[in-house]
Amino acid sequence: MANPRVTETHPVAPSPSPHSPGAERMRRHRARRREGKVCVFIQLDPGTISGLVELGWLPGRQRDDRTAVIDAFCRFIGFALDMTRNIRR
After folding, report:
1. Under a CB-based contact definition with an 8 Å cutoff, are residues 64 and 73 in contact?
2. How far apart are CA 44 and CA 73, in angstroms?
């Protein structure tokens, strides 16, 4: 007869380990490539950031917020390219 106080344990499968930072970067790189996107690095000088503020693309209080600057710059470039396409038509 089995002892009712003793419980049988079953091995638990280990949870999947999180991806390494390198594997995660590669996953994002491949996803961008599938979407036809290219990742570029640019340096914006303070004058360019001030220009984005003066033109209304970036709120002045966000001039030190890297994400806000990147977003404003990308929107500005997209707008400029759209304007160029419209001029050529």
Report:
1. no
2. 9
How much is the pTM? Answer: 0.62
In degrees, rounded to 5, the angle at the alpha carbon of residue 37 between the alpha carbons of residues 49 and 62 is: 20
If you average pLDDT over every residue of the chain, what do you get? 87
Give the pLDDT of residue 85.
82
Sign of CA dihedral 29, 32, 36, 38: negative
Calculated CA dihedral for residues 21, 27, 28, 33, nearest 10 degrees: 150
Residues 42-62: tens digit of each pLDDT? 999 999 999 999 999 999 999
Show me where the domains of the chain are located. Answer: 42-89
